[in-house]
Amino acid sequence: MAASELRQEDACRTRAVLDLVGDKWSLLVVRYLSQGPHRFTELKREIDGISQRMLTVTLRALERDGILTRTVHNVMPPHVSYELTPMGRTLREAALPLLEWSVTNLAHIDAARAEYDARTSPA
Amino acid sequence: MAASELRQEDACRTRAVLDLVGDKWSLLVVRYLSQGPHRFTELKREIDGISQRMLTVTLRALERDGILTRTVHNVMPPHVSYELTPMGRTLREAALPLLEWSVTNLAHIDAARAEYDARTSPA
DNA sequence: CTGAATCCTGTATGATACTG
DNA sequence: CAGTATCATACAGGATTCAG
């Protein structure tokens, strides 16, 4: 489908994407897993500021949606690895333009904010 | 920048995008404005389920970030029109792949959820 | 190590009424 | 018409504790 062909009836899809990856951590998890399989503690360490609880919740949701797989290795000590599914990898690809946009425009946005704030609350 | 060149140090950017458009309504507003300038009431009517308050809050945030412009026409009755800035239009373009991904994979996700639920809560 | 369970709080969001 | 102000609420998210 060409980008320009998205139509009105896709509005609900917008909500669907946001419900999926619009939370605070999902895209970050997908980001790190795109570099290869990771273990729980690795993700916990790499994703700055995430709590155990939110990592668990986020991983469960993404597993349920078929974005990643959870594999338990029955060894001692216990071992669980998470890995993107093929669909998870396509999600990562689809999210990249937005991330690139962010990298490109963040400075511009900061400038816009500063100007707006100066304009609305002068002195 | 090539998609494959995004690196670890861009992690913070992921948060920046989500802070910008990861809320419930921003992308929907951008969506409708990509079809041309709209007035407050038009947006209110077209975006299903949004409250006056959230439309106001969302529009203000997007205006502050330089995504759209707010133009007050001094006529009677009052008249305010909202329009995407050039940066706003590039944001819309950057978000399109994710929306297309959603359209393509939503059925797949529903299936994954159903299977997951069946697997975890059997009967 | 990898979680699950519980409790607690802030923020986002919504409903309603009022105003230039 | 296009908001603002106020109040109410739900859910995300954090801290802590417990368990296989």
From TrEMBL, chains A, B:
Gene3D superfamilies: Winged helix-like DNA-binding domain superfamily/Winged helix DNA-binding domain (1.10.10.10). Keywords: DNA-binding, Transcription, Transcription regulation. SUPFAM superfamilies: Winged helix' DNA-binding domain. It holds the Pfam family HxlR. The keyword Transcription applies. InterPro entries: HTH_HxlR (IPR002577), WH-like_DNA-bd_sf (IPR036388), WH_DNA-bd_sf (IPR036390). Residues 12-110 form the HTH hxlR-type domain. The keyword Aminoacyl-tRNA synthetase does not apply. PANTHER family: TRANSCRIPTIONAL REGULATOR, MARR FAMILY (PTHR33204), TRANSCRIPTIONAL REGULATORY PROTEIN (PTHR33204:SF39). This is Winged helix-turn-helix transcriptional regulator. It comes from Amycolatopsis pigmentata.
